[in-house]
Amino acid sequence: MTSSHTTNLSVIEGWTGGAFRDSGFSARRRLKRPADGRNVMSLAPLIDPVDDLSPAELTRYARQLALPEIGLAGQRRLKAARVLVLGAGGLGTPVLTALVAAGVGTVGLLDSDTVAESNLHRQTLYTPADLGALKVETAASVLRAQNPHVAVVPIAERITDENALALIDDYDIVIDGTDNFPTRAIAHDAAGLLGKPYIWGSALRLDGQATVFWSEPPEGSPFLLADLYPDYRTSVDDETCETAGVLGSVCVAIGGVLATEAVKLIVGFGEPLLGRLLVHDGTLGSWRTVPFSHDPARVVSVELMDEDGIALDAIVAHYMHPADSRRADTAAPRERPTAAMNPEISPQELHDLLEQRAKGEAKFVLVDIREPWEREIVAIDGSEFVPMGDLLSDEAKTVLPPDSNVILYCHHDGRSGQARDYLEGVGWESISHLTGGVHAWVRDIEPDKPRY
Question: Is the pTM of this model over 0.90?
Answer without folding.
Answer: no
